[in-house]
Automatic annotation (TrEMBL):
Stretches that traverse the bilayer: none
Protein name: ROK family protein
A biological process from GO: D-xylose metabolic process
Taxonomic lineage of the native organism: Bacteria, Bacillati, Bacillota, Erysipelotrichia, Erysipelotrichales
KW Nucleus (keyword) present: no
Pfam families: ROK
Family recorded in the similarity comment: Belongs to the ROK (NagC/XylR) family.
Stated role: Transcriptional repressor of xylose-utilizing enzymes.
SUPFAM superfamilies linked: Actin-like ATPase domain, Winged helix' DNA-binding domain
Alphabetic keyword roster: Carbohydrate metabolism, Xylose metabolism
Amino acid sequence: MNKKILKDVKKHHLHLLLQSLFSRDSATMSELSNDTQLSQPSVRNMIRLLQQHDIVKETGNDHSTGGRCPTRFALVEKHFNIICLYIQNPKITYQIHSYKKILTTDILEFEDEQQLITLIKVLLTKFNCQCIVIAVEGIVRDNEYLTDHNNHFETHTWITELEKSINIPILVENDVKAMQLGTCYHHHKNSSIYLHLNKKGIGSSYMYNGQLVHGKYGIAGEIGLIPYHDISLNQAVRTCNKPKDFQNIIAYLLIIVLTSLDPEHVDLSLELDWDLDWHLINETIYTYLHSQFIYDIKVYKQYLDNLFHGLNYLGIEKILKQLVEESNEKI
């Protein structure tokens, strides 16, 4: 077999193994073999390699059912210190994660993007982390993003400037996509959509076959740009001042989602003072669809929990890929 192909195959196998250890917290050789569909000798060789590089450790033994007591293995947590940031001008909400534990959380305010960069650098000097993961409102394109909060698009490039001045990886994701990724801690669906509303407008995220859909230009999910009574849905939310108008906006959103995507599951969260009137919403949907479709809809109040779960997952996945690259070089 071509040497490069062999390396790529082993890299893929290492990644499967590390993902299994992350999802299970700890696992035996047999469990890892079942999860990865690899032979136990192959798993044993990879575990030894990862132990040599202090990436995997033994955590104890299970009771024997006959023969040797199975040894349990887990990831070494010190490799997974992550700064998770949620940027909502003019504030940053941040959490410092050590693997799956939250070490600290706080909110900081900033006046401009230069001060924002300075605040993040201060956090880096205070906390020893291997990765920064940032959630932003808007359309993400690499390490830049676009917002339309002032009814016109603005491009934000400060993350590129930050990246040039630090030596750890940065990941950037749309905030609603991070929220949806965080719901994977609670349920797994083949297709689902997440809707989030706040005073600036509406964001959405679509997941298909367990993968976030970004689209060609990162605009997938920007449902707030759709026209609604001669203005955008984002503008309609910003100017809404009547409860019935708000319920109509929610019904309109759900009609778009149900008819265009027909998902298995819909998640919804609000950063607004309005309450949802499901009787009125369902009546409006029935007026246009002429049928009572039964959908699995869940409303989240703690949307920040979802967001930071999602950011931490992205950070761990990034570090796992780096560890695979480093370990694979030794094969």
